[in-house]
Design brief:
This protein is an alpha+beta fold. The protein is built from 13 helices and 7 strands. Helix 9 runs antiparallel to helix 13.
């Protein structure tokens, strides 16, 4: 009995292994077993679409066999087509932009008028972006001739559309716009400039000093043997000279504090009384001095250095000029505003086409400030 039951189980196992599975049903090897569905999805016949094309079927694609000469000729034709397209594009560009790619004037000169100086491009007066004539005050002949030289050195009219190519013209136009607004009783531009320069006063470059001690000081990396003072001492010495002049001649009794504490990176705001006095002084500047102050602050990132430079050269502050001391000029202002950069490049060297370009550009911007405020006012 035991052997019979074991034999029956083996036969059932063999039969179960002989089932063949399909995608729709489980088919047994013998027809005597019933058909068992694999799933309950309804069976449907495939629908064949009708043939709509006429004629015999297309032939299979074959690779074209080209001779080397044929390939060369084909590439020549493609190169000729590309060359003709480039010529058409260049001719179209030259026709559309030819007036700007060359100078429409041959002579630049200064013409004296009753209300100042006009810069003439041949027989046409130089105009501002708002189409009004750019006039230079009669007390500033050097400024007028500098603008004329600036336009005489341009190689195309297109260069005159970029402010960085004509820094003296752009700053003079800015001052002229402020003057026109003042005559009309408007103060929109003036208020915007005052707001901008006062923001720089809170983080003035002249008042940001290096920490008293740092890791570089400990390892003597920033103190070469030929240097007798640290970067912080150098910054303090330069700042005290300028602050002493301003607080004794421009804003007597005003207290100006350093922006950064000895071991902090968060700026310290100036006293409210100091801000009020400085802002009132800036708001009352004449148009040309106000435009010069904006340019100087943006170049130096320092309100104090820009004020010191303007007062030294402006015809409006001639009563403050002294002849017994050295002048505070472009070199002095650029040096005071870049003390830390000069310190680092003196130790590690300059990056070509970066530090040298920035240095020359700053001096060019500050030179335009000096030209704008200088004059021979009676």
């Amino acid at each position: 009995m035991m052997r019979s039951s074991t034999y029956q189980r083996l036969q059932q196992t063999k039969r179960s292994r002989l089932f063949i599975f399909s995608s729709r049903r489980l088919l047994p090897t013998s027809s005597q077993h019933p058909i068992r569905q694999y799933h309950a999805t309804e069976t449907r016949d495939a629908g064949v679409l009708p043939v709509t094309a006429s004629g015999p079927p297309p032939s299979a694609p074959t690779a074209s066999v080209l001779q080397s000469s044929e390939r060369i000729e084909r590439r020549k034709r493609q190169a000729d087509i590309l060359q003709r397209g480039r010529q058409l594009k260049s001719s179209h560009d030259s026709k559309s932009s030819s007036p700007l790619k060359k100078k429409f004037w041959s002579d630049v000169h200064v013409k004296e008028a009753d209300d100042g100086y006009n810069i003439m491009l041949d027989a046409r007066p130089l105009r501002k972006p708002n189409k009004s004539i750019l006039r230079v005050p009669p007390s500033k002949p050097d400024l007028a001739h500098a603008i004329a030289l600036e336009w005489d050195l341009l190689e195309s009219a297109q260069q005159g559309l970029k402010n960085h190519n004509i820094p003296i013209t752009s700053i003079t136009s800015r001052a002229s716009d402020i003057l026109e607004e003042d005559l009309e009783g408007e103060s929109k531009t003036r208020e915007a400039i005052v707001e901008t320069v006062m923001r720089y006063f809170d983080t003035d470059t002249l008042l940001c000093w290096a920490p008293e001690r740092s890791v570089e000081d400990e390892t003597s990396l920033d103190q070469p043997s030929e240097r007798t003072e640290s970067l912080r001492q150098n910054q303090i010495r330069e700042a005290r000279t300028i602050i002493s002049y301003l607080t004794s001649r421009i804003w007597p009794g005003v207290e100006i504090q350093p922006v950064l504490e000895s071991n902090s990176i968060l700026p310290t705001p100036q006293p409210e009384a100091t801000r009020t006095i400085v802002q009132g002084w800036v708001s009352g500047l004449p148009p040309y001095e106000l435009a010069a102050l904006e340019r100087g602050v943006l170049a130096c990132k320092s309100l104090l250095i820009a004020v010191r430079l303007i007062v030294e050269w402006s015809e409006e502050f001639r009563d403050l000029h002294t002849s017994d001391k050295e002048l505070f000029g472009v070199e002095e202002a650029a040096s005071a505003s870049s003390l830390e950069v000069s310190w680092q490049t003196g130790m590690w060297g300059e990056v070509e086409d970066t530090h040298d370009v920035d240095k020359e550009d700053m001096r060019r911007q500050l030179g335009s400030v000096v030209l704008l405020v200088s004059g021979h006012k009676a």
